[in-house]
């Protein structure tokens, strides 16, 4: 991951600041940077979203394609994640970014492995034969710290904006099944994203932990906890990263903070998505040229 | 307790031009024709094609008699002798350090160009060479002055004065070098309670004002005591104000930073980076600057 080099005195300044709940940019330990969320930025996808957290820029595109269901779950569709970090820096181009990309993709698989997060049964067309497969592609445009949170926010926003065309299964006299796509392009099914979790990264700096760490703060933190929280505050998965160790008590504190912050994150995100939805076609599209 | 704000993106409208000081500037983009008159000599940032002088970078056209050049708006730092720079040590080599200063090549700090701790003045010996890492390590920040420029454009620095040397606790802000105004002095003790070093290379260092000037130290003892909360607030506010000025491409110098700081006092520190608050305080600061000039 992109990281900055800091002098010892700078790191000390950051650690003492976190201790006193005043970070370098004036935020408290549980404050997020101002996020900009926009959906429907890529036209040839079923759903897309772009999230900009000051210096971190993520683009997610979702394409719905027909496929065969998995053998162990014949009446459900599924999600496939792919993460690309090439546009970040020369060292992450091509094979270099593969490690980071697979790491993020595996984390996303784990977060969405919980059964209730996405209603997979609604993605089924014909049990054992046809189902919708959602290919979720994540592009890391700029890495400015806290990429996991931004990616999960973008995935949730993209899932919210995904429109899957309605299909009907017609059965012939001989028993052969035909799939018919409805003629109306606006006739589509939307996904219910109420249970989709968001990742909250808590980085341990000194004796306290912070949410939404910048690159400089990540350089000062030895251990972080990635928690995925649903809008009701339920934790669906947890992962510890970093080469430092975490005390079990601090893990409990971080989990509580993660639940609290996660709930406000979901509320803010849902509000923005509803606001965007209500604006409808009159919303000025900003995209990448704003 | 937790504050999470999200917003829909808005088109970033540039501030209304108001009164442009010094007349209209000729702005060009790469590929724009500057002039079709063949009597001009082409300078940096231009090339000739089909008898036309075309710009190769995005920037402002500068004309000195017959020489036409384009000064790029966003470019790496080009060192000039006498500039103050803030740099980060990237490598420790034999008898010299490599310093990153946001220029095309890493700058060089020779072992013979530094002051030893304690202010000793002597020729550096072999033991000094082996002890280089005790003075400056990789990742350390230093303030230095440009001593000379090598033929390939790499800059050679020196810290042969007590005001230069290793930097202690503080905050570094990286901006484009073209936004830092050239002034007589780049070390400012702002009246709001913090000090600022405006490096010509775009690295700006904000730090708490040291209480007494310790001349014997020679610039190496780092004060590792925790900085008091009041100083921290001033430093964070200054950092956000500088980011606000950079977003709207205002030249950075001590007066502009101070005006922006004073305009931001009614707001909370973390609110300064919200787009509407940024625009408000930058407009106010710009108005004060224009009033004080005209």
Automatic annotation (TrEMBL), chain A:
GO biological process: exonucleolytic trimming to generate mature 3'-end of 5.8S rRNA from tricistronic rRNA transcript (SSU-rRNA, 5.8S rRNA, LSU-rRNA); nuclear mRNA surveillance; nuclear polyadenylation-dependent rRNA catabolic process; rRNA catabolic process; TRAMP-dependent tRNA surveillance pathway; U1 snRNA 3'-end processing; U4 snRNA 3'-end processing; U5 snRNA 3'-end processing
Localization per record: Cytoplasm; Nucleus, Nucleolus
The keyword Acetylation belongs to this UniProt entry's keyword annotation: yes
One GO cellular component, as annotated: cytoplasmic exosome (RNase complex)
Keywords: Acetylation, Cytoplasm, Exosome, Nucleus, RNA-binding, rRNA processing
Cited Gene3D superfamilies: GHMP Kinase, N-terminal domain (3.30.230.70)
UniProt keyword Nucleus present: yes
InterPro entries: ExoRNase_PH_dom1, ExoRNase_PH_dom2, ExoRNase_PH_dom2_sf, Exosome_comp_Rrp42_subfam, PNPase/RNase_PH_dom_sf, Ribosomal_Su5_D2-typ_SF
Any Pfam family the entry gives: RNase_PH_C
GO MF annotations, alphabetized: mRNA 3'-UTR AU-rich region binding
Domain Exoribonuclease phosphorolytic: 32-165, 196-260
Family of the protein in this entry: Belongs to the RNase PH family.
Listed PANTHER family: EXOSOME COMPLEX COMPONENT RRP42, EXOSOME COMPLEX EXONUCLEASE RIBOSOMAL RNA PROCESSING PROTEIN
The protein's assembly and partners: Component of the RNA exosome core complex (Exo-9), composed of EXOSC1, EXOSC2, EXOSC3, EXOSC4, EXOSC5, EXOSC6, EXOSC7, EXOSC8 and EXOSC9; within the complex interacts with EXOSC2 and EXOSC4. The catalytically inactive RNA exosome core complex (Exo-9) associates with the catalytic subunit EXOSC10/RRP6. Exo-9 may associate with DIS3 to form the nucleolar exosome complex, or DIS3L to form the cytoplasmic exosome complex. Exo-9 is formed by a hexameric base ring consisting of the heterodimers EXOSC4-EXOSC9, EXOSC5-EXOSC8 and EXOSC6-EXOSC7, and a cap ring consisting of EXOSC1, EXOSC2 and EXOSC3.
Protein name: Exosome component 7
Name of the gene: Exosc7
From TrEMBL, chain B:
Keyword Iron attached: no
Domain S1 motif: 82-160
Biological process annotations from GO: CUT catabolic process; exonucleolytic trimming to generate mature 3'-end of 5.8S rRNA from tricistronic rRNA transcript (SSU-rRNA, 5.8S rRNA, LSU-rRNA); nuclear polyadenylation-dependent rRNA catabolic process; poly(A)-dependent snoRNA 3'-end processing; TRAMP-dependent tRNA surveillance pathway; U4 snRNA 3'-end processing
Alphabetized GO MF terms: RNA binding
UniProt KW Chloroplast keyword: no
Gene3D superfamilies, A to Z: 2.40.50.100, Nucleic acid-binding proteins
Top-rank lineage group of the source organism: Eukaryota
Keywords of the record: Cytoplasm, Exosome, Nucleus, Phosphoprotein, RNA-binding, rRNA processing
Subcellular location: Cytoplasm; Nucleus, Nucleolus
One GO cellular component, as annotated: nuclear exosome (RNase complex)
Pfam families: ECR1_N (PF14382), KH_6 (PF15985), S1_RRP4 (PF21266)
Record family assignment: Belongs to the RRP4 family.
PANTHER family tied to this protein: EXOSOME COMPLEX COMPONENT RRP4 (PTHR21321:SF4), PNAS-3 RELATED (PTHR21321)
Subunit and partners: Component of the RNA exosome core complex (Exo-9), composed of EXOSC1, EXOSC2, EXOSC3, EXOSC4, EXOSC5, EXOSC6, EXOSC7, EXOSC8 and EXOSC9; within the complex interacts with EXOSC4 and EXOSC7. The catalytically inactive RNA exosome core complex (Exo-9) associates with the catalytic subunit EXOSC10/RRP6. Exo-9 may associate with DIS3 to form the nucleolar exosome complex, or DIS3L to form the cytoplasmic exosome complex. Exo-9 is formed by a hexameric base ring consisting of the heterodimers EXOSC4-EXOSC9, EXOSC5-EXOSC8 and EXOSC6-EXOSC7, and a cap ring consisting of EXOSC1, EXOSC2 and EXOSC3.
Protein name in the entry: Exosome complex component RRP4
Native organism: Setophaga kirtlandii (Kirtland's warbler)
